[in-house]
Amino acid sequence: MLHKQMLLALVALTSLNTSVIGTSKPAESITAERIAHLRAKERAAWAAYLDRSQKQMLADRAALAAERTRGAPVPPLPKEGLTARSMPLDCDAAWYGTAEAHHLADVIVSFQTPAGGWSKNLDFSGERRAQGQSYAPDNLNKHPGPDDFDTPRDPTWNYVGTLDNDATTTELRFLARVAAATITHDGDLYRVSFRKGIHYLLAAQFPNGGWPQVWPLQGGYHDAITYNDNAVSQAAELMTDVSAGAGQYSFLPPDLRQQAAASADRALDCILRTQIIVNGKRTAWAQQIDAITLQPVSARNYEPAALSSGESADLLLYLMRLPRPSGAVAAAIQDGITWLNSTAIYGQQWVGGRNPPSGRHLESKPDAGPIWARFYSISANKQIFGDRDKTIHDDVAEISLERRNGYAWYSSGPQQALEAYEGWRRLHPSIIR
Q: What is the pTM of this model?
């Protein structure tokens, strides 16, 4: 009896010490109803954007349907893989003219969607896309649950055209390298595909300069401005490189380079506008931003609307790479660096394996750090952690073992931005506050 009473007391104590500080709400899709409430001068551009997306979705689906014969078996889904790793961007220039690089480029072109983008998690090391084969592998959530924010409207049409996981921008950079190494007509296929991809990015860009995670629009958080996986900054950097027309991008016509330059300018304006202000001070950025309200929103169930250290560091690195930073850019960088310094964690390390019983956890170590939590609450600037049931916690030990082990809750990655800042500030003393 005494043992039972002690056990009940322990359970009660554990319950008292466990706190759920919030619940993630699903992000809103971009809809005609929401657009109708915009100011008149914004409404027309957003209505045209949504119409363009819907028409492109129908065209993409119709193109795939036309490849399939009624009654004939549908080809299996493409092989999954780490897309970016199958497209090396750091080889000697001569390698991109080899048969191996050409085969890889041919496979990439075969998986380009009619809209001009690519899906994610594709393994391009195999064969070309077969007639009637899906443009995307099985990108469905491997841990589905009720009210899963990542559940697609149509499970057979998921992430068909995306900037997630380095998709689309990596394919384009690879194709540009192969095209530059193939100056004969044999390289025309890659040049045409590249131009189509740039037009895809132009079509997918929001009127306010951001980019969604998936285009044509898929709904939910996929419709948000996506800083996760560097989607916006990678697209903006590519547009900047295209606009310069140097090196492997020299084959592009002047009008397309001009469009790319304007696109990069709009993206920069969006980045500056969405740096979150708390109590009158600029801080950092969220992982996802509602495209219409420009307010932080949740992404997956366990990714709350919050300040995000990794995405903020990546955006700061992008801003510091700009060749002629304005005063507004300099201020955004300085305030972002101040925020990173204020949230750095010393004396603790993120350790442990991915298997029970202990799992990953924080452990004290006097000389450890800096590391950063993935998410910080916007109002209190405190570490927060989400779980698959949409609950938000202020202690990583409170979330499920599966999510604690399966997500990068802490990282030392933002240190790169702090190191880069030291060099950046020496290069630009005249605009430092």
A: 0.93
Render pLDDT for 161-201 as a digit per residue (tens, 0 to 9): 999 999 999 999 999 999 999 999 999 999 999 999 999 99
Whether 300 is catalytic: yes
- Quick check: helix, strand or coil at residue 128? coil
Alpha-carbon distance of 170 to 99, in angstroms, equals 20
Q: Which residue out of 300, 360, 374, 403 is catalytically annotated?
A: 300
- Gap between the Cα atoms of 395 and 386, Å rounded: 10
And the tokens for 181? Answer: 């190494």
Catalytic residue among 121, 139, 165, 405: 165
Check if 121 is active-site: no
pLDDT digits (tens, 9 = 90+) for 32-73: 999 999 999 899 999 999 999 999 999 999 999 999 999 999
What are the DSSP E strand ranges found in 35-193? Answer: none
In words, the CATH class of domain 21-273 is mainly alpha
Options 1.10.10.10, 2.60.40.770, 1.50.10.20, 1.20.272.10; which CATH number does 275-433 get? 1.50.10.20
Is the Cα dihedral 168, 169, 173, 179 positive or negative? Answer: positive
φ, ψ of residue 108 in degrees (nearest 5): -60, -50
Q: Under 8 Å CB-to-CB from 178, ≥6 apart: which residues?
A: 96, 97, 101, 102, 104, 105, 187, 190
70-122 confidence digits (pLDDT tens): 999 999 999 998 777 789 999 999 999 999 999 999 999 999 999 999 999 99
Task: Name the phi and psi angles at 297, rounded to 5.
Answer: -135, 165
